[in-house]
Amino acid sequence: MTIINPDALGIPRGWSNGILAPAGGRVLFVAGQTATDAAGRVADRGFVAQFETALARALAVLAAAGGRPEHVGRMTVYVTDMEAYRSARPRLGEVWRRHMGRWYPAMALVAVSALVDPDAAVEIEMTAVVPEAPEGGDR
Protein backbone atom coordinates (compact mmCIF):
# COMPACT_ATOMS: atom_id res chain seq x y z
CA MET A 1 0.00 0.00 0.00
CA THR A 2 1.22 3.47 -0.81
CA ILE A 3 0.20 6.39 1.40
CA ILE A 4 -1.01 9.45 -0.52
CA ASN A 5 -0.85 12.68 1.50
CA PRO A 6 -0.66 15.73 -0.80
CA ASP A 7 1.33 18.58 0.77
CA ALA A 8 -1.50 21.02 -0.03
CA LEU A 9 -3.76 19.19 2.48
CA GLY A 10 -1.39 19.58 5.41
CA ILE A 11 -0.06 16.81 7.64
CA PRO A 12 -2.78 14.38 8.75
CA ARG A 13 -2.74 13.25 12.38
CA GLY A 14 -4.01 9.73 12.98
CA TRP A 15 -5.11 8.96 9.41
CA SER A 16 -3.92 9.10 5.81
CA ASN A 17 -5.68 11.13 3.15
CA GLY A 18 -5.41 8.33 0.62
CA ILE A 19 -4.10 4.80 0.25
CA LEU A 20 -3.16 3.38 -3.13
CA ALA A 21 -3.55 -0.41 -3.23
CA PRO A 22 -1.12 -2.54 -5.21
CA ALA A 23 -2.27 -4.36 -8.32
CA GLY A 24 -3.19 -7.98 -7.89
CA GLY A 25 -4.60 -7.77 -4.36
CA ARG A 26 -7.91 -9.15 -3.18
CA VAL A 27 -10.38 -6.63 -1.78
CA LEU A 28 -11.91 -7.55 1.59
CA PHE A 29 -14.93 -5.68 2.92
CA VAL A 30 -15.24 -6.12 6.69
CA ALA A 31 -18.74 -5.57 8.09
CA GLY A 32 -19.18 -3.17 10.98
CA GLN A 33 -17.96 -4.75 14.19
CA THR A 34 -19.06 -3.75 17.66
CA ALA A 35 -17.79 -4.87 21.06
CA THR A 36 -19.93 -8.00 21.22
CA ASP A 37 -18.71 -11.30 22.58
CA ALA A 38 -19.24 -14.66 20.84
CA ALA A 39 -22.77 -14.77 22.27
CA GLY A 40 -23.60 -11.37 20.75
CA ARG A 41 -23.59 -9.40 24.02
CA VAL A 42 -21.73 -6.19 24.79
CA ALA A 43 -20.08 -7.01 28.09
CA ASP A 44 -18.08 -3.82 28.71
CA ARG A 45 -19.68 -0.39 28.70
CA GLY A 46 -16.40 1.57 28.71
CA PHE A 47 -15.70 3.51 25.52
CA VAL A 48 -12.01 2.55 25.19
CA ALA A 49 -12.73 -1.12 25.91
CA GLN A 50 -15.50 -1.13 23.30
CA PHE A 51 -13.21 0.50 20.74
CA GLU A 52 -10.52 -2.09 21.39
CA THR A 53 -12.91 -5.03 21.14
CA ALA A 54 -14.53 -3.70 17.94
CA LEU A 55 -11.10 -3.13 16.38
CA ALA A 56 -9.89 -6.59 17.43
CA ARG A 57 -13.00 -8.20 15.93
CA ALA A 58 -12.51 -6.37 12.61
CA LEU A 59 -8.85 -7.39 12.57
CA ALA A 60 -9.86 -11.01 13.28
CA VAL A 61 -11.87 -11.00 10.05
CA LEU A 62 -8.87 -9.53 8.25
CA ALA A 63 -6.54 -12.18 9.68
CA ALA A 64 -8.95 -14.96 8.68
CA ALA A 65 -8.60 -13.73 5.09
CA GLY A 66 -4.80 -13.77 5.32
CA GLY A 67 -4.40 -10.06 5.93
CA ARG A 68 -2.52 -7.89 8.39
CA PRO A 69 -3.22 -4.39 9.74
CA GLU A 70 -1.05 -2.77 7.04
CA HIS A 71 -3.45 -4.17 4.41
CA VAL A 72 -6.29 -1.95 5.69
CA GLY A 73 -6.86 0.81 3.18
CA ARG A 74 -9.99 2.40 4.61
CA MET A 75 -11.71 2.42 7.97
CA THR A 76 -14.87 4.06 9.23
CA VAL A 77 -15.47 4.41 12.95
CA TYR A 78 -19.00 5.14 14.12
CA VAL A 79 -19.46 6.50 17.66
CA THR A 80 -22.56 7.37 19.64
CA ASP A 81 -20.73 9.94 21.80
CA MET A 82 -18.21 12.21 20.11
CA GLU A 83 -17.18 13.77 23.41
CA ALA A 84 -16.34 10.32 24.81
CA TYR A 85 -14.15 9.78 21.73
CA ARG A 86 -12.41 13.13 22.13
CA SER A 87 -11.70 12.68 25.83
CA ALA A 88 -10.38 9.13 25.24
CA ARG A 89 -7.96 10.01 22.44
CA PRO A 90 -4.72 9.41 24.39
CA ARG A 91 -5.89 5.96 25.53
CA LEU A 92 -7.29 5.21 22.07
CA GLY A 93 -3.84 5.99 20.66
CA GLU A 94 -2.35 3.31 22.91
CA VAL A 95 -4.99 0.80 21.76
CA TRP A 96 -4.36 1.77 18.15
CA ARG A 97 -0.60 1.26 18.35
CA ARG A 98 -1.06 -2.09 20.10
CA HIS A 99 -3.25 -3.40 17.27
CA MET A 100 -2.29 -1.33 14.21
CA GLY A 101 1.26 -0.20 14.95
CA ARG A 102 2.00 3.02 13.10
CA TRP A 103 -0.27 2.18 10.13
CA TYR A 104 -2.96 4.81 9.55
CA PRO A 105 -5.40 4.03 6.72
CA ALA A 106 -7.72 6.53 5.10
CA MET A 107 -10.30 7.07 7.83
CA ALA A 108 -13.59 8.67 8.70
CA LEU A 109 -15.07 9.18 12.16
CA VAL A 110 -18.85 9.54 12.20
CA ALA A 111 -21.09 10.43 15.14
CA VAL A 112 -24.41 8.60 15.02
CA SER A 113 -27.45 8.79 17.26
CA ALA A 114 -27.51 5.02 17.88
CA LEU A 115 -26.17 1.67 16.71
CA VAL A 116 -28.24 -1.47 16.19
CA ASP A 117 -27.14 -2.90 19.54
CA PRO A 118 -28.36 -0.37 22.13
CA ASP A 119 -25.35 -1.14 24.38
CA ALA A 120 -22.77 -0.49 21.63
CA ALA A 121 -20.92 2.84 21.66
CA VAL A 122 -18.49 2.08 18.80
CA GLU A 123 -18.72 0.28 15.46
CA ILE A 124 -15.76 -0.18 13.11
CA GLU A 125 -15.85 -1.24 9.47
CA MET A 126 -12.92 -1.53 7.11
CA THR A 127 -11.84 -2.28 3.58
CA ALA A 128 -8.53 -4.04 3.04
CA VAL A 129 -6.51 -5.21 0.08
CA VAL A 130 -5.02 -8.59 0.93
CA PRO A 131 -2.12 -9.83 -1.21
CA GLU A 132 -2.82 -12.70 -3.57
CA ALA A 133 -2.60 -16.09 -1.88
CA PRO A 134 0.58 -17.99 -2.73
CA GLU A 135 0.31 -20.70 -5.38
CA GLY A 136 -1.78 -23.56 -4.04
CA GLY A 137 -2.81 -21.52 -0.98
CA ASP A 138 -6.34 -20.24 -1.63
CA ARG A 139 -8.28 -18.92 1.35
Describe this protein with a few key phrases.
globular; 60s Ribosomal Protein L30, Chain: A; two-stranded antiparallel sheet; alpha+beta; four-stranded mixed β-sheet; 3 helices; 139 residues
Q: What's the name of the CATH homologous superfamily?
A: RutC-like
What is the name of the CATH class? Alpha Beta
Main sheet? 4 strands, mixed
Q: Element order, helices and strands?
A: EEEHEHHEE
What share of residues are in beta strands?
Answer: 25-35%
Please describe the topology of this protein.
Elements: E1 2-4, E2 18-20, E3 26-33, H1 47-64, E4 72-79, H2 82-87, H3 89-100, E5 106-111, E6 122-130
Parallel strand pairs: 4-5
Antiparallel strand pairs: 1-2, 3-6, 4-6
Can you walk me through this structure?
With 139 residues, the protein is of the alpha+beta class. It has a single domain (2-130), classed as RutC-like (60s Ribosomal Protein L30, Chain: A). 26% of the residues lie in helices and 27% in strands. It contains 3 helices and 6 strands; from the N terminus they run E-E-E-H-E-H-H-E-E. The strands form 2 sheets. It has a 4-stranded mixed sheet. Strands 1-2 form a two-stranded antiparallel ribbon. Helix 1 packs parallel to helix 3 (89-100). The relative contact order is 0.27. The mean pLDDT is 91.
